[in-house]
Design brief:
alpha/beta, Nucleotidyltransferase, domain 5, 5 domains, four-stranded antiparallel β-sheet, 16 helices, 37% helix
Length: 508
């Protein structure tokens, strides 16, 4: 087999210089038939064909094909590598090399791609979107250090299809309330709402996938879509290229944002940084379709977006029964409610960052939401104000009551002074109950002033609180070092004579 250089010489001598076949064969030391064959075929570059023959892998080809098909249907984390497949084949008696197994896998994947009418990474039609037309959404999973602990987070990713302006926000979970909260923050960051949203068939949006474009959409998700006035469109199953922009954004964000592990004291601080980081990247990244930044294209697209109104009341509602200890359970944690609702059913509205308890159409309690990441027994979160009605009947429960371990410092100091005395329990309960009638900060101010004056009693606190409510400035309670009379006494007995001039008063 001759090489490319030799073939080039033959073609130049014969076709350009008109040298005979005999002379070419003589000069190069090859046969005339070889020269004639290459010239007649019109070959410019020689091709090399390998004769097909049996290999060591032939007896294991069917088994390897079945393994490759099974691994392709698994998730990336569960999928066996080619090295593991080679080791498993060796356990069955295969004596060939790893390279032959890898070459077989490449050919197998190429065949699968050809069967699906694709080649390489796939063949797609480029898409274009009008300003304000659509956005794409997807979840991703990344890590950050929160309060000194490496934590796995769920990242809500949004991207405007026209300007390519993207937005990221981190959450603990991929639940309805997290999804609703993420949409509001994305629309606020963009300064408007597109007319369409493109999603995959996530469980928080689609209850059931039907034939074609038929979908049974979740009722709460439909309510959110109706609130913000955009249309929701869902991709075909296993067709990630239909929202390729956000799929690529997931990859790009890991390189641009998550490559260096972020360290923050709280999730709120991380989200504030993510919002600023997205805007910074908009100003730096060039738009792929024109010689402008994403920020410039977004500024042009913003007038085409629908205005952002009131945020969607994105809660998920549960019915709970209050325990005799005035607690409700949610996600292995327990939260207190007012004692008057003990043993009664209430409605729990779950938001992304808080829990709201509703009864008879009124909000009766609210707690910051605690996400239990350790899947342990859980914790209990009290509001001591919820137990004041019980204390009025059982003042002795104040001494060891678990809800009262978190009293404000002024109340704790007052409690330490009152409880050793007789009736101190009830007096302390009556002082605490003042927060049911007056502003808690005013009550705390009255208690603090009473403690500073050294007279921490119920009557003193009530008098100070009355002055605070009237708006009358309190006189200083500190006594001077030396007392002095306003009118000094005089040694004058003549003043008694004035008493004799007065008419005597007799009993009637």
């Amino acid at each position: 087999m001759i090489d490319v250089a030799l073939l080039s010489i033959i073609r130049r001598w014969h076709l350009r210089d008109h040298v005979s076949l005999r002379e070419i064969a003589k000069r190069l030391g090859i046969s005339r038939n070889t020269v004639r064959r290459y010239l007649r075929s019109g070959t410019i570059e020689p091709t090399y064909s390998r004769a097909a023959g049996p290999t060591v892998l032939d007896g294991y080809a069917e088994k390897l094909s079945a393994w490759l098909k099974a691994e392709a249907n698994r998730t990336r984390k569960q999928r066996r590598s080619l090295l593991q497949l080679h080791q498993d084949l060796c356990a069955l008696g295969y004596t060939g090399s790893y390279d032959r197994v890898a070459a077989f896998a490449r050919r197998w994947r190429q065949e699968q791609q050809e069967r699906s009418q694709t080649s390489g990474r796939g063949t797609f039609v480029p898409l274009t979107f009008a300003p304000g037309d659509a956005f794409q959404f997807d979840w991703s999973e990344d890590s950050a250090v929160i309060n000194g602990e490496r934590t796995k987070l769920q990242i809500a990713q949004f991207k405007l299809c026209h300007s390519r302006a993207f937005f990221l926000r981190a959450y603990w979970l991929q639940t309805h309330e997290m999804l609703f909260d993420a949409h509001h923050h994305a629309f606020v960051a963009w300064g408007g709402i597109p007319r369409r949203g493109i999603y995959d068939n996530m469980k928080t949006a689609v209850d059931r996938v039907g034939r074609g474009k038929s979908r049974e959409v979740n009722a709460r998700f439909s309510s959110m879509v109706s609130h913000y006035l955009f249309d929701a469109q869902f991709c075909n199953p296993a067709s990630g290229w239909e929202k390729g922009q956000i799929e690529k954004n997931v990859q790009d964000s890991r390189r641009r944002i998550w490559q260096r592990l972020p360290h923050f004291s709280s999730l709120e601080a991380l989200n504030d940084w993510l919002a600023d980081e997205c805007v910074r990247l908009w100003q730096q990244i060039r738009h792929p379709a024109c010689d402008q930044s994403i920020w410039q294209i977004w500024s042009e697209e913003r007038p085409f977006l629908m205005p952002v109104g009131q945020p969607f009341d994105g809660f998920v509602e549960h019915t709970k029964r209050v325990s005799p200890t005035c607690l409700i359970a949610f996600e292995r944690d327990r939260y207190s409610v007012p004692a008057s609702y003990a043993n009664l059913p209430v409605s729990l509205r779950v938001y992304a960052d808080r829990l709201v308890v509703v009864a008879e159409g009124h909000v009766i309690a609210q707690h910051p939401r605690h996400i239990n990441r350790r899947h342990d027994r859980g914790a209990t979160f009290y509001d001591w104000r919820h137990y004041l009605a019980v204390l009025q009947r059982k003042p002795g429960a104040l001494r060891n009551g678990a809800p009262f371990t978190a009293l404000p410092e002024a109340f704790r100091q007052l409690q330490a002074l009152l409880l050793p005395h007789a009736g101190g329990d009830r007096e302390m309960v009556e002082i605490l109950s003042l927060v049911l009638l007056h502003d808690e900060q005013l009550v705390l101010a009255a208690v603090t002033l009473a403690l500073e004056a050294g007279t921490p009693s119920k009557q003193t606190i009530l008098n100070i609180l009355s002055r605070l409510l009237d708006g009358t400035p309190l006189p200083p309670l500190t006594a001077p070092q030396a007392l002095s009379l306003t009118v000094e006494p005089e040694a004058n007995v003549g003043r008694y004579d004035t008493l004799r001039t007065q008419e005597p008063r007799h009993a009637a």
